[in-house]
Amino acid sequence: MVKAVVAGAAGGIGQPLSLLLKASPYIDHLSLYDVVNTPGVATDLSHISSVAKIDGFLPKDDGLKKALTGADIVVIPAGIPRKPGMTRDDLFKINAGIVKGLIEGIAETCPDAYILVISNPVNSTVPIAAEVLKKAGKFNPQKLFGVTTLDVVRAETFVAELSGEKDPAKTVIPVIGGHSGETIVPLFSLAKPSVKIPEDKLDALTKRVQFGGDEVVAAKDGAGSATLSMAYAGFRFAEKLLKAAKGESGIVEPTFVYLPGVPGGDAIAKETGLEYFSVPVELGKKGAEKAHNIIGQANEYEKKLLKACYEGLGGNISKGVEFVANPP
Ligand code: NAD
Ligand code: LMR
């Protein structure tokens, strides 16, 4: 029996993500939690003839605890999204507290669950989650993941637009670092099978992956940020993790992890000078079973991108750690 929980389930990401999870054969029980509208969303999804049993909870009557009880995997897209002119860091003020509260609930009720953090700024909310879990004595770094899959999905899509490849997902493109602007580093030189990016297109392609979120925010014109593509990406990562947990081997996906707690992560932490970083991670029953250090294989162009990434990401991480150490 696998129980999945979505926290923030009534939102722009939460609803389509819950739909995909409800339809997944890897999930037997899906609980939805949000501060509004979960009874409606759960009732709507309950009419779908898939195997997963579904229920929905609000904060009243100990709803968070009820939703989280027995959870094997908790996906968190709770929190406000950007509007034009905002950075992801501008979301910190509100979303830091939301993520902290939800992780406290997880630490108390289902500390052994895989935790997938979507809420922005991911570069800071994942360190917040880790610090809250550490404080509660419940931190298992192999089970905490910042979801950066949308960056990978974008890289696959934009490269296929250039290469003409019919099925974009057939090309594996590692995207590493963090999840905002210049902290997002696509390594096109390591694509498998290899892709030839014309030199005059490389800067624009790199920027499009790094700032793909802004493209959606601008197009939505005040109505939020990526929701449907994020639901797809979040589901893709969650399902890969569940498949790996069931024993399927060879599943590797980039994700933002606490490096010192993941096998293979120490060397990457040393090289980057950072404790958190997204790298291709081998998934398995334990969660993050091996972090792959591919940084040394980056070409000169990508090494320059990595330098800018390290500079920005360090501050984002410290901000999250500090938020829990010295609450405002
Ligand atoms: P949204 O406003 O449509 O939905 C957010 C939901 O969270 C709402 O239903 C709200 O009621 C709920 N919520 C607020 N406080 C809560 C709490 N304490 N507990 C439970 N639920 C709570 O926003 P969205 O478009 O779905 O985006 C959600 C978050 O995901 C944003 O922070 C956004 O920046 C982020 N995001 C991340 C990625 C990524 O790649 N990691 C991609 C897209 C969006
Ligand atoms: C994205 O990459 O689309 C998300 O992080 C949302 C945003 O604020 O851009």
Automatic annotation (TrEMBL):
Homodimer. It comes from Cryoendolithus antarcticus. One of its GO terms (cellular component) is cytosol. It is an enzyme of class 1 (oxidoreductase). The keyword Flavoprotein does not apply. CDD domains: MDH_glyoxysomal_mitochondrial. GO terms for molecular function: L-malate dehydrogenase (NAD+) activity. Keywords: NAD, Oxidoreductase, Tricarboxylic acid cycle. Residues 148-324 form the Lactate/malate dehydrogenase C-terminal domain. The active site is at residue 179. It catalyses: (S)-malate + NAD(+) = oxaloacetate + NADH + H(+). NAD(+) binds at residues 8-14, 34, 95, 118-120, 230. Residues 3-146 form the Lactate/malate dehydrogenase N-terminal domain. One of its GO terms (biological process) is malate metabolic process. Substrate binds at residues 82, 88, 120, 154. This is Malate dehydrogenase. The keyword NAD applies. Belongs to the LDH/MDH superfamily. MDH type 1 family. Its EC number is 1.1.1.37. SUPFAM superfamilies: LDH C-terminal domain-like (SSF56327), NAD(P)-binding Rossmann-fold domains (SSF51735).
